[in-house]
Every structure is written in C-alpha cells, then in structure tokens.
C-alpha cells in the first residue's frame, strides 16, 4: 500500500483518487478551494442553479468504466439523459440548424435537409474519415501513456495509416477537403475550441471530437453536470479516500524522489506518490520551483496556451419559446475571433476581447435549476484571451467586464435572442476570476492548446520526470474535456498499479 496524495479535487484528481483507493492505496486529496469539482462547479443563488463548467458529457463509457472498476455501475448512481437535439446553431447567413442526437446518420440527414443532398453526402464522407482517425489514434494517443514521437512513428509503419491521420494537416484544412458549405466548415471549426485551440492551427486529428459527439451522443445529468464530480468523490470516499478542502498546497517535496507535500499552513504531509490534478504550469512553476521542475517548465515554454472564456450567469424572468438545451450563435467573421483570442493575424501580439464573438448558451429545461417554471437560468460563454496584464490583457481593468457583458447581450439581441428586459441579475466571471478560482494560468481552460502539429507531444506526460510524481487532468496527456480527463486518471492508475 502506497501513501498517495492527490493535489486538486477537480474531476481528474477525484477520478484518480477513486481508482487508486479501489486498488488498495491510502489516498488523501488536497483541494485549495472550499468545495470540490474544480472547473466542474455549481452556483446556486435565489433559487437559480448553474453548472459553471462543462454542460454535457460525451463518451460516457469512460465514466462507466470508472464506476464499474470501483463498485456500482454509473447508472445506479446518476441518471444520464441523452440530448436530442444536442444543440441549436444560428449561422451568419441566416441558417438555423438543430444538430440531432440520433447518431451520425441523423446528423448527415439533418445537413441534407438544411442545405441539400450534397451537404449530407459531404458530412457522411467526413465522418467516415474521422472514424478512421479515431480507430488509429484512440489507443496510442488517448488510452495509453504518450511515448514521445515514437507514438507517431508507430503509425508510420503503414503509409495508409499516416495518410489517414494526416499529421501535417490542420482541422480546417481537413474540413476544406470534405465540406463545401461554409456553414459546415464553420460548424467543424468550432470543435477546435473544445480543446481551447484555433482550427487553423489545430491538427486534423481533432476530427475525432465531432466523431465522438455524434457516434456516442451528448448526455446530461438532471440537476446539473456538477453531480458527476460529487458522485466520483462519493465513490472515492467509499474506498477510504480522505478529501480535505481549504487545504492549498505550497510545495511538492522531492529530492529527487517524491517525499510529500507542504501546505500553505506550513504542515508537511509525507507521501510515496503524489498525483497532481492542478494545471501543469502551476505545478512546475509554483509547486516545484527548483531544479526538479526545470524540465517541465522548459517543455511548457514550447507549447501554446489554450484560450480562456468570459462567462455570464443570467437569471431570467419568463420562458423562451423553442429554446434548446444548447444554442450557438456564430459571428460573421470567425477568423477575427481567433485572431483576437490568440493575438494573431491583424491582432498579432495584441490579444483582446472579441468584438463580435461566438456566443454559446447552456439553458437546461431542468426544474432543479430554476425557482419556478416562469424563470430560466442561462450559462453564457464566449471565447476570450487569457488574463495577462503584463502582455496588455487585464481582465481586472475597471469597468471592462461590465462593458463587455453589455456588448455581448447586445450581440445576442442582434442574433435573435434579446433577454435584456427579462434580466433579473447577471453574475460575470472573467478569465482573471477563473485564474483565481482554479489557479490555472491566466484562466486558460485547457492548459496547453492543440495548436500545431507537435502539440500532442508538448502536452505534459502523465509520468513526470520526478520519480513518484504523476499528472492528471486537462492540462496533461491526453488533454482537456471530461472524457480525456477521465482517461488521464485511468492511465495514471495503471502506471501506479495495485497496492
């Protein structure tokens, strides 16, 4: 039995703790905040409830595996409800389109009905290519520890496989090979943002993101997706895991083998193994500031940070006819959005709030999240540059958050969703708030982005260079999003092994 300390009670840390507890280890989870969940949070106010992080679950098999290997099946603990339609999209040319939750054939039919038979055929062909990429990359890139460039060289033994994955091609480039309609190309581009990335630079392998969503469905947990984190925490404690909140870690002690952690209170806790569920940049910069973290800092310096998000939690009076669970309102110029977020193109070196952003709205028709049937709780998110005062992007600048929120509400009105006269209150959360709440650098949602052909190999490995130190969560391999976070925990549990 190893003494294991998990730093951070986000879903990655909690999932690793549950798996390691079930394997017989003595596990303690240390969380700096007052509540668990990390980015998978909940806000309740005046009868309204909001998921403050992810609002849907894809690839639920990852969490079914977690619960089966630690006790009762997932469905015995949580209700999973499929979303159909999964999302409503409004495009700048006027097209409104519901993405069905009825599988890949249903998505192709929906495109054909909206844009004609060619669009349906194009999407079906694209989905077949994405399925091929998924089959080739799932095991070596998602379910196994990354073995550097040797992982890619393993594919190179078969030229047909390397052509399928096309590591030299961007997601946008792949879309242009298959999709003629601008609405379909814009729709595909958005999937790069699921990893905090720019579709012009993210690899074609991200075609697996829409493949997973369409092949395995989009799922919701009545009462809020935050309950997934609570259920994983309950499973962990059932195996003897201790979860301590309001317990910020100041340092991981290693010389060179891991010896334990020191809390900000000054208390030192010994450990044989430390699993870090915090952002990798925070780990290597702040918790391992000495020589032990030098290699990690050097690797992260080569990676491109992910985008952040500007959030509004809207408490609304009245109901919206025909409102879907998810709605996406696209802008006229998507490239301008990515330039503002990443400081590229005309915004080179000058990231700034997007004047005309894509607006994402999560508004579950869930009685548990509103005071009564005559109200709605909306989570509104737009892509945003990270908080970086030294680089000129200061989200704490007086009046900036309020004026930007006002602008977004105006953009929503221009695109057919004017809720300004129904607004009871609005709670704003900026990238600076996200940084303070989760200690993610600049509020980067996913740590490193997937920008660049080598991005997967720049993401911090699950086994660190420090003996006994492992990484889980969205900023480590295999990446961000609920499915990949769960896979990172499974990889780490396998690396550590049974007691």
From TrEMBL:
Pathway: Carotenoid biosynthesis
UniProt KW Magnesium keyword: no
Record-given protein name: Phytoene desaturase family protein
Domain annotation Amine oxidase: ranges: 11-289
Highest taxon listed in the record's lineage: Bacteria
Keywords of the record: Carotenoid biosynthesis, Oxidoreductase
Pfam families: Amino_oxidase
UniProt KW Transmembrane keyword: no
Entry similarity comment: Belongs to the carotenoid/retinoid oxidoreductase family.
Natural source organism: Kineosporia mesophila
InterPro entries referenced in this protein's UniProt entry, alphabetically: Amino_oxidase, Carotenoid/retinoid_OxRdtase, FAD/NAD-bd_sf
Bilayer-spanning residue ranges: none
């Amino acid at each position: 039995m190893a003494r294991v300390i998990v730093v951070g009670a986000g879903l990655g840390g909690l999932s690793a703790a549950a798996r390691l507890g079930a394997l017989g280890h003595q596990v303690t989870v240390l969380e700096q905040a007052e509540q668990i969940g990390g980015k998978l949070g909940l806000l309740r106010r005046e009868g309204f409830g909001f998921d403050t992080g992810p609002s849907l679950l894809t690839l639920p098999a990852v969490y079914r595996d977690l619960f089966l290997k630690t006790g009762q099946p997932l469905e015995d603990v949580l209700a999973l409800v499929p979303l159909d339609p999964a999302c409503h999209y409004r495009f700048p040319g006027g097209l409104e389109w519901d993405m069905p939750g009825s599988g890949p054939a249903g998505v192709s039919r929906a495109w054909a009905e909206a844009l004609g038979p060619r669009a349906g055929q194009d999407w079906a062909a694209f989905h077949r290519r994405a399925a091929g990429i998924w089959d080739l990359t799932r095991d070596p890139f998602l379910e196994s520890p990354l073995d550097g460039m040797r992982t890619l060289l393993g594919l190179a033994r078969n030229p047909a496989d390397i052509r399928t994955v096309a590591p030299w091609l961007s997601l946008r480039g792949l879309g242009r090979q298959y999709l003629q309609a601008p609405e379909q190309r814009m729709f595909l581009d958005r999937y790069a943002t699921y990893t905090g990335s720019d579709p012009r630079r993210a690899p074609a392998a991200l075609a697996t993101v829409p493949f997973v969503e369409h092949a395995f469905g989009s799922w919701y947990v009545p009462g809020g997706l935050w309950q997934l984190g609570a259920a994983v925490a309950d499973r962990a404690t059932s195996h003897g895991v201790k979860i301590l909140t309001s317990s910020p870690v100041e340092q991981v002690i290693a010389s060179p083998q891991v010896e334990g952690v020191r809390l900000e209170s000054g208390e030192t806790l010994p450990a044989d193994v430390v699993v870090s569920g915090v952002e990798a940049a925070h780990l290597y910069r702040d918790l391992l500031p000495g020589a032990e973290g030098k290699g990690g800092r050097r690797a992260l310096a080569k990676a491109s940070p992910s985008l952040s998000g500007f959030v509004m939690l809207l408490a609304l009076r009245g109901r919206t006819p025909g409102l879907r669970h998810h709605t996406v309102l696209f802008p006229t110029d998507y490239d301008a959005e990515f330039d503002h977020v990443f400081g590229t193109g005309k915004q080179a070196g000058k990231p700034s709030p997007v004047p005309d952003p894509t607006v994402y709205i999560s508004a579950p028709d869930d009685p548990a999240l509103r005071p009564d049937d005559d109200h709605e709780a909306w989570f509104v998110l737009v892509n945003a540059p990270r908080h970086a005062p030294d680089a000129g992007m200061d989200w704490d600048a007086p009046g900036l958050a309020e004026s930007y929120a006002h602008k977004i509400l105006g953009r929503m009105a221009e695109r057919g969703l004017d809720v300004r006269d129904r607004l009871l209150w609005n709670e704003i959360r900026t990238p600076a708030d996200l940084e303070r709440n989760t200690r993610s650098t600049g509020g980067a949602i996913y740590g490193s982005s997937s920008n660049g052909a080598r991005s997967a190999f720049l993401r911090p490995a699950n086994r660190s260079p420090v003996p006994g130190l492992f990484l889980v969560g969205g900023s480590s391999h295999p990446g961000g999003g609920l499915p990949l976070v769960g896979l990172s925990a499974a990889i780490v549990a396998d690396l550590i092994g049974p007691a």
